[in-house]
Design brief:
- The protein is mainly alpha-helical.
- It is built from 23 helices and no strands.
- The longest helix is centred in the last third of the chain and has 51 residues.
- It is elongated.
Amino acid sequence: MSQRTERRGIHVDQSELLCTKGCGYYGNVAWQGLCSKCWREEYQRARQKQIQEDWALAEKLQREEEAAYASIQGAQAPPSQAPSQSQALPPQAQPSQASLGPFSKFEEKKTNEKTRKVTTVKKFFSPSSRTAPKKAPSEREEKSHRDWRGIFTPSWEMGSPTEETQEGKTPSPSISRQASMETDRVSKDFMDFLKNLQKPGREIHKQCRAFIESMANKKDLGADELSECVQDFYQNMSDRLMTHFKGNSERVERVMDQVEKYIMTRLYKTVFCPETSDDEKKDLATQHRIRALHWVDIQMLFVSFDEEQPEVSDNVVKAITDIIEMDSKRVPRDKLACITRCSKHIFTAIKITKNEPASADDFLPALIYIVLKANPPRLQSNIQYITRFCNPSRLMTGEDGYYFTNLCCAVAFIEKLDAQSLNLSTEEFERYMSGQASPRRPESEDGWPQTGAPAADRAAVNPVLAELHQNLELLSGLDRRQENLMEAAQSLQSDLLSWQESVEREVQGILEKYPLEIRPPAPAAIDADNMENDRLPPPLTPQMFAG
């Protein structure tokens, strides 16, 4: 216990969140602590180095094959002709010329034998080398290249009406694909947004369509190569927009947000968790890891939460909901927005608990706790998706980049969480991880949780568990009251039945004692009951007249 009181909780210096190159931008664990800009520079440098090594290796293999072929031909040639050939031919020119015909077969065989050991020139990182086999460019391709070279020129002139009509008649296989309602809505919003830009808007839409079509032929690329293609498109588009808008970064950012939303909605099924990556494997590993750490509570992480307060509890639930909702979004910017909302709810919960603004040292442990409680689906895939395909400027600066960097740190902390991180002994940590014991409730000698523990002790262990026990006690009291009410209702029912029987007996006795007799009424004149008959005049007597 003394060790636990000395521990101050999880602390991460803010300088550790920045790029290790010292550029001042936020770094990322997935990029080895570098920001997106420095990582791309390192990636380009490593790729160029790899290309040079591959070329050198390919040339070396070619020289070896040529030498081997020359030695074989020299061994098979007649002895009388061999000296004359060696004297007549130049030392390097003629053997290579003689080997040009069958050399491709030797190279193919040698390459097939060394596929697992050597990366040949055909597998360079260049996106152009990953596409379909080379063929003569068509008129449409040449026009597309001309459009790309001329995109966002100062005049912003479109092609001739004839060219526009021809391009409009050619169906796009990726755009004509059956899309979901969300994709249709995003496409409609994108077109409405581009209408305000007039000619530049049509040109932007044309280039976005061309890029989506080109990405349809690159499904076999690795995740890093797909990311490189998208980031190159972002960079080229941003540079040309910056030139057109004369350095107005706000307008460029608005346009790039819409471009990112449109492109990534279209490419989501292709680039999210691609088959060439191990994102799914990482997702399962992280999910199992978080499930195994279900016993970690607030006290172990030194989280500044008081979940007994209704406002704090509501913000915690909202934070968990936002981090889970991240998986339902398609656009990297929308996923970042979910992370930002989750983080703001965490800051609000800490502020309500402490009655003062939250610090960065309070935020990271709380974020780790939220991730453990939420166990977001496909967490690694979503982080990698944001890292690869989000607009790099959004991850380098601003609150979105800060919160995303903290989320990456939280996931890395969970993956490396051990007994020392939680200030536990190794034996306790192993018992909790294996499920043999739980630190949340005290246990009796037989291993079952004690239900008679004081409420204060339970609250000290876990506020949520204390509230659960309080609700169970209330339910038990309601159960007892319901039983009493049912007993009183049954007693009342029996009393009503006995009263009904007694009333029926009394009525029957009265009927038997005083039977009902019905006497017929006495005949009487019509006017017998009229007391004023004596005042009436005498009846008329009929008179008879003789005829």
